[in-house]
Amino acid sequence: MPQVPQTFFDALAVRTWCGLALAAVGRAREEIDAINVYPVADGDTGTNLYLTLESAYAAVEAAFAGHETGSGPGGSAGAPTLADAARAMAHGALIGARGNSGTILAQLLRGMAQVLAAEADSENAHIDGPGLCLALRHAADAARQAVAHPVEGTVLTVASAAADAATEAEGDCGTVARAAYEGASAALAATPDQLAVLGRAGVVDAGGRGLVAVLGALVETFRGEAPVAAVASRVRVTARADTLGAPDTDGAAECADAAPGPAFEVIYLLEAEDAAVARLRERLDPLGDSLVVVGGDGLWNVHVHVDDAGAAVEAGVEAGRPYRIRITHFGVGDVHTGGAGRPPRERAQRAVVAVVPGEGLAGLYGEAGATTVIARPGEPPASGELVEAVRRAHAREVVLLPNDADLRHTAAAAAEQARTEGIRVALIPTRSAVQGIAALAVHEPERRFDEDVVAMTSAAGATRYAELAVAERQSWTMAGICQTGDVLGLIDGDVAVIGSDVTATAEAVIDRMLQAGGEMVTLVLGDEAPEAIAGHLEARVREGYLAVDTVVYRGGRQGALLLIGVE
């Protein structure tokens, strides 16, 4: 169905573009994954681009929803400004960026957003064709600067060609977008001649292919219809045998010509000052390759391939506060290290995938054998991220623990998508991480799948859950009116206790929960919980409930002051 075209680049155009780009990359995801041979032939470029765009789109939708309810900047209902929408897009892409190409795409979107926000000087601001030219130019330059060692024949080349073509065009946004798309398509078709590994495989650059899809969505935003694809992903390469050799008839499945690269991909968000990030780049550059650092204004996304993952994380600690740390091992049997002749890694029979609210619980779940997805306060994972985690678990059967009532539909969508890929997925509707802990405690991979799921579901359902949080504003609750700064004790999702002291409120919550009986109290402490609260609560349970045991975990930066479970 044709899209209603936008005349200018305003907030609605940002929203439309993000939605269309997400859909376009979603349609091309498998194709892009299949041609992924550079910088690492791990077959996930399309998926990483999709996850990056999904995060950007979710952030823009949240900006619109906030203004529609009057909770956006200024507190009035309506639509966000172009500056608001552009900044939301950039922030969403930054925090959701995955992989080398996803990180570069995040910087491209950030570069565009900087120009869009700067040009937006009023409530109804928009930009026209020349402004879009400037945005595309700044985006391409910013992305190139973010990469430690730019390589031609990659998404950087495609982005620069798009900006060059847009600069030469004259007209409205639709004309400029079409010129950028055509310039990018021509550059993409030439990538096998610029990068030998692409020529040998007979494919175009995967990241560049994804960017062409994103630019095609930009054309559709302003013209109402998507352009007809002009470049095939797989190309017939005719080159002298002494320079490129014969085309690889298996396409991206083999990349045996490339020497084995670093063993790990390390990605994390980093809160740090600009000067510290400059030192970080110098520290990371000699450790490996594919170094990309994007962001600004105190928040950065760091991506690098290294042999010493610990050193890469330690460098982040020295620069500031790294979090959402993700380390992927390019293990034996992975496509980019295995080369020809090595068998693919065997799938495990069963795995558990769980959403957790902080690094502390991620470590606990990881020790129990679970694959984890960390959910930050206000940053819930999207369905695509859960699907990617299910794939990463590399198992025939997967038990999915969302650990949040609000993630029920997201997890259900992820489970349905994974099932279409031949993975047997059971979704246990856990509403808190403490219910997930209870489920993991009875997990037995050796028994029948259905029996294991029933046992885990039963254990989770038998666990009441609570949390302590601080009220951000005055509001009505089931326990009465709370004031800003009050300590709230929520039991099974509803406010049951309002207090002024964290420890006293926690005591009241535990007493209420144990009135119905229980054998085990689980306490998960957040970073901001008082130091002495664990010992105090353990003593309280020990003295008041003789047959009840207590176990304490450190949850790290998990949003809630304290999570409580009673089994």
Task: Compose a concise summary of this entry.
The chain has 19 helices and 16 strands.
**How far do the termini sit from each other?**
53 Å
Helix fraction, binned, reads 40-55%
Strand content: 15-25%
**Order of strands in the sheet with the most strands?**
13-12-9-16-14-15
Tertiary shape: globular
Instruction: Report the strand count.
Output: 16
Largest sheet: number of strands, sense, barrel closure: 6 strands, mixed
Number of helices: 19
Radius of gyration: 25 Å
Summary keywords:
single chain, alpha/beta, 18% strand, 4-stranded antiparallel sheet, 47% helix, 16 strands, 567 residues
Summarize the structure in words.
This protein is of the alpha/beta class and 567 residues long. Helices cover 47% and strands 18% of the residues. It has 19 helices and 16 strands. It has helices spanning 11-34, 45-68, 82-96, 99-119, 129-146, 155-168, 173-194, 196-201, 206-223, 274-284, 309-319, 335-338, 359-367, 383-393, 408-420, 433-441, 449-461, 502-514, 533-544, and strands spanning 264-271, 288-296, 299-306, 321-329, 348-356, 371-374, 395-401, 424-427, 464-470, 475-477, 480-482, 487-491, 494-499, 520-526, 549-556, 562-566. The strands form four sheets. It has a six-stranded mixed β-sheet, with helices on both faces. A four-stranded antiparallel β-sheet has the order 2-3-1-4, with helices on both faces. It has a four-stranded parallel β-sheet with strand order 6-5-7-8, sandwiched between helices. A hairpin with a 2-residue loop joins strand 2 and strand 3. Helix 1 (11-34) runs parallel beside helix 3 (82-96), helix 2 runs antiparallel to helix 3 and helix 2 (45-68) runs parallel beside helix 4 (99-119). The longest helix is centred in the first third of the chain and has 24 residues, at 11-34. The protein is globular and about 80 Å long. The chain starts with 10 loop residues before the first helix and ends with a strand. The model is unreliable at 237-259 and 331-343 (pLDDT under 50).
